[in-house]
Amino acid sequence: MQNFWDQRYAQRVKLMKSSAIRDLLKLTEQPEIISFAGGLPAPDVFPIEQVDAASHKVLQERGAQALQYGPSEGYGPLLELIARTASRDGLPITPENVFITSGSQQGLDFIGRLLVNPGDLVLVESPTYMGALQALAPYGAEYVTIPSDEHGMITSSLEEVLATRKPKLMYVLPNFQNPAGVTMSLERRRQLVELAIRYEIPIIEDDPYSQLRFEGEHLPSLLTLENELRGTEEDTYRGYIIQLNTFSKVLAPGLRVAWMIAAPELVRKLVQSKQGADLQTASLNQMIAYELMRDGFIERHIPLIRRTYRERRDVMLNAMDEHFPACIHWTRPEGGMFLWITLPEGMNATELLREAVKENVAFVPGASFHAEGGVQNTLRLSFSNATPERIREGIARLGRVFHKAVAAQTTTASTHV
Amino acid sequence: MQNFWDQRYAQRVKLMKSSAIRDLLKLTEQPEIISFAGGLPAPDVFPIEQVDAASHKVLQERGAQALQYGPSEGYGPLLELIARTASRDGLPITPENVFITSGSQQGLDFIGRLLVNPGDLVLVESPTYMGALQALAPYGAEYVTIPSDEHGMITSSLEEVLATRKPKLMYVLPNFQNPAGVTMSLERRRQLVELAIRYEIPIIEDDPYSQLRFEGEHLPSLLTLENELRGTEEDTYRGYIIQLNTFSKVLAPGLRVAWMIAAPELVRKLVQSKQGADLQTASLNQMIAYELMRDGFIERHIPLIRRTYRERRDVMLNAMDEHFPACIHWTRPEGGMFLWITLPEGMNATELLREAVKENVAFVPGASFHAEGGVQNTLRLSFSNATPERIREGIARLGRVFHKAVAAQTTTASTHV
Q1: What is the DSSP secondary-structure string of B388-412?
Q2: What residue spans define the domains of chain A?
Q3: How many C-beta atoms lie closer than 10 Å to residue B414's C-beta?
C-alpha cells in the first residue's frame, strides 16, 4: 500500500503548502525552548472564569439549543449583536451581512472556495499572512505581490498592477499586520479603496488585531472608507469589502468562533457552502461568545490584553536594542502581536533558526510569508505569548545567535576579499 | 452591484447543491409544525448536566489549554483514547490513524478535497445521505448508484460496475442508513470489502449510528472485515477503509466533534489540509468529549438514547400501521434515527410536502437522496426528535394527507380509463 494514496490524490493536493508555523509549534513545544514562533495569544489573559461562567449559563438556560444542530449562517442573536455593533459608526450592517465561521482561517478557505478559479490572481502584500496563502493555494490562486514598508502596502505602483495584471481579489491586513506588525496609513487606505472601487476588485480586509492598539490613533477600516467613498444610501451593505473578524484574539482561539461581514448575496452563497463543508460552527461556542459580548465583558477585557501585550512589546524592543547587532533592523508595531526583523543581505533566517533552536529559542523564518519567495533574510517574532522574563532571556539568546552569524558573515566576506 | 458577485464565482460554485433538509428546517421551525424532517437527535437525551460538569472541569484544570490553539490533528489524549477504544476488537488502530474533524460532514468535505478530481466517479447507494452528495459535488464528483433493499446495498451487480465504471471511491452507510434506515447484511459487507480489495477502491464507511442498535445483532464494521480479509500483520492500519465516526449522535451535535480512522499517510495529508481550512477543531469541545468518553459516561449514556429512540420508532411504526393507506410501504429499522417510505408509483413526495405543511406536519422528500435523480415517490421520516405524543399526532396528520392523495390518484386513474 506504500504509494496507494499518493496515486489517488486530487490535483489540488499538489498545490497545498504545509505551514512552517504549525510544524514549528511541534518542534518548539519543549518547555526549555523560548518560542517567539507561534502566533499564540498570552494564556495569562484568557478569561477562564468568564468562559466557564458563560458556558454554565448557556447550558443551564438554553442547554438543548447549545447542544443541538443550529443554522449554518450562525446563531441568530449573535448575528444580530455583531450587526448592531458593526453599525455603531453609521455603517449599514444588518444580520444578512454577517456569517459565522470556525475561525477566520475558515473564512479565508470559504473565500477561496467561492471566488478562486485555478490560475486566478490574488494581490497580496509582501510579506503577508502565510495562512492566507495556504488557504487560497489549493483552489489554484496565484499571487501578485506589492511590497510594504512601515506604513503598510506601498500603494504608489498599485494602479499600474491593477490595470495590467487584473487580479480577481486583493488581500490586506491593514492593522498591525501579521507578520510585519505595520499599520497601513490613512492615505494609503483611501488610495487602495478608491482603486478597488474604480477597478471593481473585492478586498479581503483581514482584521483580527484592530482592537489591540497600544498607542496612536485608531484608523477607519477599509469597510468604513469604502462605504463612505461609494456614497450610496443602502439599507444593507453591498460593497466590495469582505471583512474578516474574530473572537480568537480578544477572547480565546480555542473556541474557534469568528465572523465575516460581506454583501448579503455573498453571505447566502457562503451559507450554502458551509452546509456541505461542516454544516455549522459549534452552537455552544457561538452562544458562549454571544454571552460574553452581550454583557460587555469582551469590551471590558480588551484593555487588559492591550496592557499585557504593550508591556511585552516594550520589553522585547528594549532587549533587542540591547542585544542585537546594529546591522539588524526591525519594525516597531503600535499594536497586535508581531514584529518583523530584517537581517543583512545574504543571511539566511532558516539556517539561523537551526542555530537558534540549539540555544533554545525559536522564531519563524520569513520566507513562507513572501508569496513570490526568494527572500531569505527576514523573520517574524511574536511578543504576545511569552512572559516578560522569558522575552528578555529569549532575546538575549537570539542576540548571541545573531552576533555569531554576523561575525561569521564578516569573516567570510573578508576571506573573499 | 446586482450581478457583481454572480460574475465572480468560481466554477465549483455551480456544482454546489443546497440542502433541502437545511432549508426545510427553517420552514418547519414554527412550533405548530410537527417535523419529521430534520435528522435531529432528541433534545430530551442531551446530557446537559454532564457536558456542563465536563466543561467546568476542563476549564478549571486545563483552562489555558482549552482556550488556546492546539494541534491540527486533534487533542492528543483524545486521539489516543479513540485509538485505544477502536483497537479493542484486535484492530491495529494507533493515534496516527485518527484525525479529529468538526463533525463528520467536515470529514466528507476533506475526503473530497484530497481525493476527488473533477469528473471522478464516486459509487453510492441509492438512496444515500444527501450531505455526502453535497460535500463531494463542489469538487466535481460524479456519481454511480447501486440500488439498495432491506439488506442494504445490493451487491450482486457491484463487480460489473467496478470493472466497467472504475469508480475512484465508494461511499456506504452500513448501519441504519440515512435515509433508508436499512442495515447491510454480513454477507453483502463481505462481498463489498472483497471487491474493494480486489479492485483497490477505497471505501468511505460512514458510521454515525452503529451504537444506536435497538434489536438484532451487531455486525462487524467494514473496517474490521477489511482488516481481516487483507490478513496482514501491520502494527498500524493501512487499508482501504476511511471510517467516519462522530460524537454527534451519542453526545451532542452542537459540540461539532467527530473523527476519522484511516491510513496514517492519508491522515497526514488531512492534517495538512486542515491547517489551511480551519486550523483545528475547537480545543474546548475536544476536551469536553474526551472527559465524557474517558470516564465511561458516553458508554453509560447510550442505553438511554437507544431506549428513547426504540420507543419512538415503535410508536411511529404502530401509528403508520394504523393511519397509512395499504398501498404505502416503509422500512422497519433496527436502530438509528430514520425510516423510509415508498409511495405508489406516480405520486410526488415534494408536492405532498406542500399539503403536509398545510396540515402542520413535515418530512423530507426523497428526491435529493437519489444521486441520479428521477425518483419522486419516496420520503424520509426521522423518529428521533419528536416526543411519542407528537409522533402519534403527526403520523395521523400525515395519514390524512396520504389518504387524500391516494384517493385523488385513484380518481384520476379511473377518469383516464
Answers
A1: HHHHHHHHHHHHHHHHHHHHHHHHH
A2: 11-46+299-416, 48-298
A3: 8
Residues A276, A109 contacting (CB under 8 angstroms) = no
The x, y and z cell numbers of residue B207, run together, are 458510521
* Eight-state DSSP code of residue A168: S
Cell digits of residue B195: 471487491
CB contact under 8 A, A113 and B283: no
Least CB-CB distance to A19: which of B5, B22, B275? B275
> What fold characterizes domain A48-298?
Aspartate Aminotransferase; domain 2 (3.40.640)
Instruction: Tell me if A254 and B4 make a contact (CB, 8 A cut-off).
Output: no
- Chain centroid to Cα B307, Å, comes to 20
pLDDT in tens, chain A (417 residues): 668 999 999 999 999 876 655 565 566 678 899 999 989 999 999 999 999 999 999 999 999 999 999 999 999 999 999 999 999 888 999 999 999 999 999 999 999 999 999 999 999 999 999 999 999 999 999 999 999 999 999 999 899 999 999 999 999 999 999 999 999 999 999 999 999 999 999 999 999 999 999 999 999 999 999 999 998 888 999 999 999 999 999 999 999 999 999 999 999 999 999 999 999 999 999 999 999 999 999 999 999 999 999 999 999 999 999 999 999 999 999 999 999 999 999 999 989 998 999 999 999 999 989 998 889 999 999 999 999 999 999 999 999 999 999 999 887 766 654
Interface predicted TM-score of the whole assembly (ipTM), two decimals: 0.96
For helices A264-277 and A104-115, give the axis angle rounded to 10 degrees. Answer: 100
Contact by Cβ (8 Å): B125, B172: yes
Residue among B38, B238, B284 whose CB faces A254 most closely: B284
- Chain A residue numbers with beta carbons less than 8 Å from the beta carbon of B275 are 18-19, 22, 131, 134
- CA atoms of B171 and B183, how far apart (whole Å): 14
Closest-CA residue of B relative to A50 is B59
A89: closest CA of chain B, how far (Å): 23
Nearest CA in chain A to B26: A71
How does DSSP assign B217-266, residue by residue? -----HHHHHHHHHT---SS--SSEEEEEESTTTT-GGG--EEEE--HHH
Cβ–Cβ < 8 Å for A335, A182: no
Tell me which CATH code domain B13-46+301-416 carries: 3.90.1150.10
Element spanning B285, H or E: helix B283-294
B306 and B176 Cβ atoms separated by less than 8 Å = no
Return the CATH number of A11-46+299-416, one of 3.30.1360.120, 3.40.50.150, 3.90.1150.10, 3.65.10.10.
Answer: 3.90.1150.10
- B378 bridge partner residues: B342
Which of the 8 DSSP states describes residue B137? Answer: G
- Compare CB distances from A1 to B11, B120, B263 and report the shortest one's residue: B263
Residue A379 C-alpha cell reads as 523573520
Of B17, B48, B65, the CB nearest to A63: B48
Judged by CB atoms closer than 8 Å, whether chains meet at A254 and B10 is answered as: no
Cβ–Cβ below 8 Å for A254 and B71: no
Sequence-ordered list of residues with C-beta below 8 angstroms from that of B328, at least 6 positions apart, any chain: B341, B342, B343, B344, B402, B406
What is the enclosing helix (H) or strand (E) of A330?
strand A329-330
